[in-house]
Design a protein that fits this description.
The chain has 164 residues and is an alpha/beta fold. The chain contains five helices and five strands.
C-alpha cells in the first residue's frame, strides 16, 4: 500500500486489549516516516471491557482524523467478536487483520502482546520501514516490555509471510 495517498486504518477491540496503544504506535510510525498524521478514538465503555476503536490516518496531508464508513484501507480487530461490529468501516478490497492471522505464529505469543503482533501483520501491507516500527514500539512502551513486544511484532510479520 502506497503512502503517497492518505491511508486509513481502524484499530478495534475491547477495553484492556491495547487498542489505543496499538494506534499510538501506528501513528508514531507514520510520524517518524515524515507523514502527516491524525488520530481519533472512541472509548465507549472501555474501562469495563466495552468496544474501543481508534482511527489513524496518515499521508502527505491529512485534513480530518475521522474515517468515513466504508473508507478504511485496513481494519485491525484485536477481539474476534468485534469483527462484525466494525467490518462496515472497511472499504471493498481493504485489508482485514484479525487474530486468525496469528494462528500459525512461530513460537509462543503472549495475550498481552497480541496488539503488537497484529501491527506486525499490518506492517507487511504498508510501505514503512521495519526499523521505524521497532523504534516506535520502543518509544511507546516501557523498557521492560521491549523484548516481548519486539518479538511479538516479528512473530506477526512471520505469520503474514507464511500466509502470503
Amino acid at each position: 500500500m502506497s503512502e503517497q495517498k492518505v491511508v486509513n486504518v481502524v484499530v478495534a477491540g475491547l477495553g484492556g486489549q491495547g487498542v489505543v496503544k496499538a494506534s499510538d504506535i501506528l501513528a508514531d510510525v507514520a510520524f517518524r516516516a515524515g507523514l502527516d498524521v491524525k488520530k481519533s478514538e472512541i472509548h465507549g465503555m472501555s474501562q469495563r471491557g466495552g468496544s474501543v476503536a481508534s482511527d489513524v490516518r496518515f499521508g502527505p496531508r491529512v485534513n480530518s482524523p475521522m474515517i468515513t464508513r466504508g473508507e478504511a484501507d485496513c481494519l485491525i480487530v484485536v477481539a474476534p467478536d468485534q469483527m462484525d461490529v466494525n467490518r462496515h468501516v472497511l472499504k471493498p478490497g481493504g485489508v482485514l487483520v484479525s487474530p486468525e492471522a496469528l494462528a500459525n505464529v512461530p513460537g509462543k505469543l503472549q495475550a498481552k502482546s497480541i496488539n503488537v503482533a497484529l501491527l506486525g501483520v499490518l506492517s507487511t501491507h504498508l510501505d514503512l520501514p521495519v526499523e521505524i516500527w521497532e523504534e516506535a514500539i520502543k518509544a511507546n512502551l516501557a523498557e521492560k516490555h521491549h523484548k516481548l513486544n519486539l518479538e511479538a511484532f516479528a512473530q506477526g510479520r512471520a505469520a503474514a509471510a507464511q500466509q502470503a
